[in-house]
Amino acid sequence: AQSVAQPEDQVNVAEGNPLTVKCTYSVSGNPYLFWYVQYPNRGLQFLLKYITGDNLVKGSYGFEAEFNKSQTSFHLKKPSALVSDSALYFCAVRSYIPTFGRGTSLIVHP
Amino acid sequence: KAGVTQTPRYLIKTRGQQVTLSCSPISGHRSVSWYQQTPGQGLQFLFEYFSETQRNKGNFPGRFSGRQFSNSRSEMNVSTLELGDSALYLCASSLVIGGMGYNEQFFGPGTRLTVL
Fold it and tell me: B45 and A100: CB-CB below 8 Å?
């Protein structure tokens, strides 16, 4: 069975500092990996995906993610956080069915 | 291009009743998936439809069902509502290329169901 783990319920970072939101996965076969963001009272918005190719994937709003096959990780990163980045972030893996992590609340302090 | 729309946005029902939620995907998207989001369980996959056929199903009881119409619009139904069914129900659509459904999904704003 496939699974996704987001080990941190909450990540706090100061505005202007780099941020990392962690994600590890378990899936048989090649993983299809995604990051989504959810703002309050809204549906999820797609940020980026890894299907194949370069391990560093660039997405929307300056976010990027690094696929590491040996560590089965797909961490989300941004060089300089903004207060407006504060939201709930979900990592997802897709093989047979889509599986989402439980989400990480990112709080960016001014 | 219009996004995914879901109706109604809010619903209040009592135990034992049934409910039908509606989802209209982005124009041209033929795959529609449904999710249940709760604080305790997070985001859980219910089922996915493509070309009016259920392709995949999550681990939910038979009280949860769905269907897709020829215009790709989808409905999900929950019968004999229980208190634990209170949740945000999200619909997502995606473009399916070559029969592979591994593309990013575009989510609607959700329907907030409260069961009393």
Answer: yes
